[in-house]
Amino acid sequence: MTITLSPGSVPLSTLETIYWTGVASKLDTAFYPGIEKAAARIAEIANGDAPVYGINTGFGKLASIRIAADDVATLQRNLILSHCCGVGAPLPDNIVRLIMALKLISLGRGASGVRLDLITLLEGMLDKGVTPLIPEKGSVGASGDLAPLAHMAAVMMGEGEAFYEGQQMSGRDALAKAGLAPVVLAAKEGLALINGTQASTALALAGLFRAHRAAQAALITGALSTDAAMGSSAPFHPDIHTLRGHKGQIDTATALRALLAGSVIRESHIDGDERVQDPYCIRCQPQVDGACLDLLRSVGRTLEIEANAVTDNPLVLSDNTVVSGGNFHAEPVAFAADQTAIAICEIGAIAQRRIALLVDPALSYGLPAFLAKKPGLNSGLMIAEVTSAALMSENKQMSHPASVDSTPTSANQEDHVSMACHGARRLLQMTDNLFAIIGIEALTAAQGVDFRAPLATSPELQKAMSALRAVVPSLEEDRYMAPDLKSATDLVASGALNASVSAGILPALEA
Predict the structure, then answer these.
(1) pTM of the full predicted structure?
(2) Hey, which residues are catalytic here?
């Protein structure tokens, strides 16, 4: 299967499919004439006398240096090799493939001036599975994600390192084994490949998609925790949320009602419950998780626009002029990443309080201490809760906004930068932590529901319980716990917990 991309109108759902599945993508050929027209204009400038930035001049602080026509190809090659300055572990393959797809979309808008040779090579690499090795660190998110994208471009030139059929090798060997030939970059093509926000945007999209998956799972575990604690579903009444009006809150309350519908546990105490109100972590789930959902949806709209944008420099405009600008500055992506980090932090924080509630006999309405069948002899889920607290705290520390931390670079030519790339990259670790927090809540909530037998939870939550119990049995006595936490975390991270409930219950990312 190959996805056909129409630059300027690629929806968020398509980008999500590319991220989760790694499916190959190619441009709609209807965009080829526009690409060729812009490439012809760049070739015309390269062969002329007038200096135009990035085509026949140096780069950045060296823009005043004129480059002879015979040296234009060397200029582009030197640009890529000199910018391959990434450090750290390689980015995951699915993120690199998303970066490449985003670059196709950007170049496909016909404003970058590259030849079709670059388009077809990127398409061929995606189709054949040639994945450039892109180190995770080195971009400040302005003037483009220069270092990460240079590592991608280097492989297209037959340089650098790549992965092919599970093996790391030189870019030249990877292309050769896949039956592909490297390109010799023409005027502006190196600049077009590395000027752009595609690395930052791909990382931000990955963080968004993962955060939304966790947010959906948190509704399942939150509903389970509500039943385990014999909490009230009255705060989820639709009129309460309609009166406030926030769509995320309304959608979240709707999901919680659907998940809890038909719970025998709930029916057993719906009348005569001695508690007037539950703690906020139960009662205010729609207000907190709904606000996070609204934030993620807003981020989705920003990143969908950015994914379809032209973000290199200079650009071939509709009147055939070539103009220098600053679309490579990733401030929108940096803000989006910071907003996602806040949502991740809050989803985990309220989930952790539900975990803490369930293991505390003073709060859990009749459940044994730490959900152990023989407390004292057994510690139960005592330290699983501590682990969730550690992960929550780590996410709080990482949630500080990256976008406010600019520093001048490139001899003060690039004197304000976005820090979008590492601001987005931290979302991967934060969502790993969040998957684990939600996984631990699944363990505590399911254990609490087990203690309510013979009363049963709702049909939908029983499906979620079955998915969990297929990989983690009920805790009868203390055992080696790490595999249980990993299995529960994997259930959340893979999307399997979400898939266990009926389609349409959990709120979508695109409202």
Answers:
(1) 0.96
(2) 53
pLDDT tens, residue by residue, 323-380: 999 999 999 999 999 999 999 999 999 999 999 999 999 999 899 999 999 999 999 9
Question: Do 182 and 175 meet the contact criterion of CB atoms below 8 Å apart?
Answer: yes
From the list 387, 503, 370, the residue with the least C-alpha distance to 436 is 387
What residues contact 38, with CB distance under 8 A and at least 6 apart?
110, 111, 112, 113, 114, 316
Instruction: Choose among 298, 292, 303: nearest CA to 217.
Output: 292
CA distance 44 to 71: 15
- How many alpha carbons lie under 13 Å from residue 316 in its C-beta half-sphere? 26
Q: How far is it, in rounded angstroms, from Cα 15 to Cα 24?
A: 11
Measured at the alpha carbon of residue 222, what is the angle toward residues 459 and 217, in degrees to the nearest 5?
Answer: 80
Structure tokens belonging to residue 408: 């001048």
Q: CA-CA-CA-CA torsion for 181, 147, 67, 111, nearest 10 degrees? A: 70
For residue 216, is pLDDT > 70? yes
- Measured from the Cβ of residue 3, the count of other Cβ atoms closer than 10 Å reads 16
Instruction: Name the CA dihedral angle for 149, 150, 155, 160, rounded to a multiple of 10 degrees.
Output: -130
**Helices 331-359 & 198-228, crossing angle to 10 degrees?**
20
pLDDT per residue as tens digits for the range 419-428: 999 999 999 9
Q: Is the Cβ–Cβ distance between 129 and 178 less than 8 Å? A: yes
Share of the chain above pLDDT 70, in %: 98
pLDDT at 71: 82
Query: Which of 249, 259, 254 lies closest to 289 in space, CA to CA?
Result: 249
Whole-angstrom Cα Rg for the chain: 26
Among 222, 263, 223, 227, which Cα is nearest to 449's? 227
The whole-angstrom separation of Cα 338 and Cα 424 is: 8
